[in-house]
């Protein structure tokens, strides 16, 4: 699947937004990838996850883990396509944790799956949880890499769509200086920038 085909999916489903957005990372941007809007369509979910699972099919993955909330849908479908256990990590009092009785065993080969990465902060936290359990990180798979490959989280890292999307520190954001209304459509609440 090419970048233009993936972008076409996002545009046709209204999942690529233009405006002034506060990203989960806390950075600001003039564009936002609302993966949930494209992933709600089974044909797109299946195609996107098929590309990700296909990349990791021969890597011996035994478990897929995703950071909540954005990565859960794509992680679950990638795990289903690979035929492996699928779990997620979530924040409790601001700290990424593995809860709900989920367990990672030291023998597991774990694939970390996320919908969108900008700085990779949530994925890095999940990777630390995997390592703390004594398991091996088999790789990182994402739908969208907004860093165009600059953020490297694992030796085996694959993004279906990799592109440079401009983002700003809140104090340097030209959209803030122009008083363009700020929206935070992500799953994690951030203080106003």
Describe the structure in your own words:
The chain has 193 residues and is of the alpha/beta class. It has a single domain, classed as Rossmann fold. The protein is 31% helix and 29% strand. It has helices at 3-12, 35-39, 42-56, 70-82, 121-132, 174-177; strands at 16-22, 28-33, 63-67, 85-92, 95-97, 109-117, 136-145, 157-162, 167-168. The strands form two sheets. Strands 5-4-3-6-7-8 form a six-stranded mixed sheet, with helices on both faces. A three-stranded antiparallel sheet has the order 1-2-9. Strand 1 (16-22) and strand 2 (28-33) form a beta hairpin. Helix 3 (42-56) packs across helix 4 (70-82).
Which terms would index this structure?
193 residues; alpha/beta; Rossmann fold; three-stranded antiparallel beta sheet; globular; disordered C terminus
By DSSP, the count of extended strands is 9
Query: Architecture in CATH?
Result: 3-Layer(aba) Sandwich
Structure annotation, total helices:
6
Number of domains: 1
Distance between the termini: 36 Å
- CATH top level label: Alpha Beta
How does the helix and strand content classify structurally?
alpha/beta
Q: How would you describe the oligomerization state of the chains in this entry?
A: single chain
| Strand arrangement across the biggest beta sheet | 5-4-3-6-7-8
Helicity level, as a percent range?
A: 25-40%
Q: Nearest-angstrom radius of gyration?
A: 16 Å
CATH topology, anyone? Rossmann fold
Largest sheet: 6 strands, mixed
Provide the β-strand percentage band: 25-35%
Elements, N to C (H/E): HEEHHEHEEEHEEEH
Spans with pLDDT under 50 lasting ≥5 residues?
189-193
Given the C-alpha coordinates, what overall shape results?
A: globular
The average pLDDT value, as a whole number, equals 92
């Amino acid at each position: 699947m090419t970048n233009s085909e993936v972008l076409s999916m996002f545009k046709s489903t209204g999942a690529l937004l233009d405006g002034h957005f506060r990203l989960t990372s806390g950075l600001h941007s003039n564009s936002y990838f609302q993966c949930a809007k494209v992933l709600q369509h089974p044909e797109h979910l299946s195609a996107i996850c098929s590309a990700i699972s296909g990349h990791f099919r021969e890597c011996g993955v035994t478990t897929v883990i995703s950071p909540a909330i954005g990565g859960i849908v794509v992680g679950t479908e990638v795990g289903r396509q690979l035929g492996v256990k699928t779990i997620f990590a979530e924040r409790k009092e601001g700290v990424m944790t593995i809860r709900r009785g989920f367990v990672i065993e030291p023998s597991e080969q774990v694939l970390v799956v996320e919908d969108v990465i900008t700085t990779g902060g949530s994925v890095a936290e999940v990777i630390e949880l995997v390592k703390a359990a004594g398991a091996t990180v088999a790789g990182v798979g994402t739908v969208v890499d907004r860093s165009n490959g600059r953020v490297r989280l694992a030796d085996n890292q694959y993004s279906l769509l990799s592109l440079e999307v401009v983002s700003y520190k809140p104090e340097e954001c030209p959209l803030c200086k122009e008083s363009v209304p700020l929206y935070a459509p992500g799953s994690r609440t951030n203080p106003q920038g």
